Amino acid sequence: MASSAELGNNAGTIVIFTDFSDAALSAANYAAALAGQLNASRLLICYSEHIPTTMEMHSQSIRLIEQEHQRHLEQLKTLKDELQTCLNKRIVIETYIDQRPLDEIVKSYNEDQSAELVVMGIAGKNRLERTFIGSNTIHVARITAIPLLIVPEHTMFRTIEKVVFACDLKKVSKTTPALTIKHMVNRLGAKLSILNVDHNEERFNPDTIAEMTDLHQLWDNEQPEYHYTDNEDIAKGVMDFADEHQMQMVIAVPKAYGFFESLFHSSLTRKLAYHIHLPLLLFKEEKPK
């Protein structure tokens, strides 16, 4: 079993975290299709087989663990074989089991930059709390420094032709990872729209005009379409816009404050699953210098 420290540079590498749930398998299939559009060279499928050290070990439990390990190896092989049938032969698929907790695995990728994209699934609202990958996807969204693509369950891949970047108007020039987002959008060859959702101008303040100027300075060279819409529920406003304009992907930058904070607040985790029915691509905010 390889560790992430041995996986080399990030050129064209997409990491898929799985738990073999329906949501995770759906995400893996989506990632495989996306790999073709991104011209990726490798898919790396990882399963975290972490066992708490507090767990009491005896001969019977050891045997069960060994059986489970073998079953997971077989599941990874089956998944690899299924994905390989629909992939270009030049795209390599590798699988591995990691004994560390998921957050430690993610942090190791943050440190060695051995992937350009992480893909995870998320289940619908009736299954979110019952699906391991669902709650862990939200957790990974908070800690990953690598772009994270969250794929809702049952999402069928469609060529990414139009994407919408949902942004707030707070510290735009200092916190937006514009170069990273531009690079990904250009790799996709997609048309970019930029959206701000407000309600009765509640978030409008004396700094807003300056922030809008900064927004245009960051993005005008990409020739995006700018949109401003009114909705009391930000997440619903984003998704309504995406549906109306036939977007294939939503881009966002979760922050400790501002536009998407409610989506990643622990008490409102379900809200993400309720509203997001398109792939959601998250980028780490830049820290103000």
UniProtKB/TrEMBL annotation:
Listed Pfam families: Usp
Gene3D superfamilies registered for this protein in UniProt: 3.40.50.12370
InterPro entries listed in its UniProt record: Universal_stress_UspA, UspA
Coiled coil: 62-89
Classification lineage: Bacteria, Pseudomonadati, Bacteroidota, Sphingobacteriia, Sphingobacteriales
UniProt protein name: Universal stress protein
Record keywords: Coiled coil
SUPFAM superfamilies given in the database record: Adenine nucleotide alpha hydrolases-like
Family that this chain belongs to: Belongs to the universal stress protein A family.
Keyword Acetylation: no
